[in-house]
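Support request, please re-run this one:
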Amino acid sequence: MFFIDHSQSILFLVLAVCALCLTLLLCIFLYHLILAARDLRIATELARTQLTQLKDLLDRIKSGFGLFGLILPMLKDLLGQAKDFLGEQTLKKSSKKTSSK
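Re-run finished. Output below.
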């Protein structure tokens, strides 16, 4: 009888240690689960703000294309005229140098 009482006490002690370890592992798992959920929420908010900023940028670009579409042909003509003018000036200078030699 004495041996049975001691083995039952040892069994309860082992069961208590196992329950303590199981509780500790469960707490660690829940802690990491909470941290993962927090990081996911932060990443979601960051993605949402970046997508909002990207949408605002695209809206500004779309609204700017109307003005840009009017200015672009004018700039193209202006650059073409400047190229022609500079080409004529270099031809005049080169023809003056060859004629003076």
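The first helix runs from residue 2 to 100. The radius of gyration is 41 Å.
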